[in-house]
Structure prediction request, 341 residues.
Amino acid sequence: MLSFALGIGTQNTQGEWLEVYYPAPQFEPSAKLIEAARRVLTLPEGNQAVSFLPEDAGKLGDAFSEAGFTEQAELAEALTQSQRPLVATLIDTDDAPASVPEVYLKLHLLSHRLVKPHGINLTGMFGLLKNIAWSSEGAIDIDELSVRQLKARLEGRTLSVDCVDKFPKMTDYVVPKGVRIADTARVRLGAHLGEGTTVMHEGFCNFNAGTEGPGMVEGRISAGVMLKKGTDLGGGASTMGTLSGGGNIVIGTGENCLIGANAGIGIPLGDRCTVEAGLYITAGAKVAVLDENGEVAETVAARQLAGQSDLLFLRNSTTGRLECRTNKSAIALNDALHAHN
Prediction:
């Protein structure tokens, strides 16, 4: 069994799931816990998302308590007071998700750091998620928004819509330990932020992407990108996601890399690499590789340097040539900055 969780969600007027919050998702749960849940809810085999009632939550609490799972028992007991739809979601095998509750559980696993980006199957998730108005009154189906806005006005309230998107912000569901996020709207649910990560105001992290931590994020971490520990993504810097241009290359960095302000990468980097401010490296860009005397040893496509360590990429200010040198002075991040998250 890959995962199990009890959730509280939102449905539209047609009874379709819009979103689900899982307070305590379980990764590779005990067989005894699953047995107790199956006994109460008569859950079928395989990947399932099964709705249940608050009175069932009380029975779940008793079953979990008898089986010795105190945390899950307390959660189930709390759900007896719910006025929102409840769901028990089981992921037996890591197949492509087949329902919104499955998608949300997998996104929770990523943001809870229980799995890493590219460590779980999210194939087809966009087709399952509806476009949602994320508002001061929670998730609203975009097709039902005008009716809800009118109702709120008639009752003397203003319904404020923060954004319209398939994904919510991570911090409405998960706040990982030891991170700082200056603008929470810029980190989507499904982001994986390692302990010691700081995301500044203009930083952004997409789903199925993130950091190992510690690290500083002042630029954009696109979908599928992972930055390893000690890496600094400068202001306005960008990483080309695996969804960009239909590419299948997994972009990311090794440890202790620096991507300068307004720079970007379209190739994966090894450890201790530096990209000069303002320089965007695409896979097909021609790079002059310099030897220890500063002479051109060869000219290659940037993709041929992918994953190699101790490289310094820069633009020759005289010739405009893209050059690569050995990064003899590896970037050391400000330890004090990352040590006090």
In short: The first strand starts at residue 3 and ends at 11. The two ends are 34 Å apart (CA to CA). Residues 54-67 form the longest helix (14 residues).
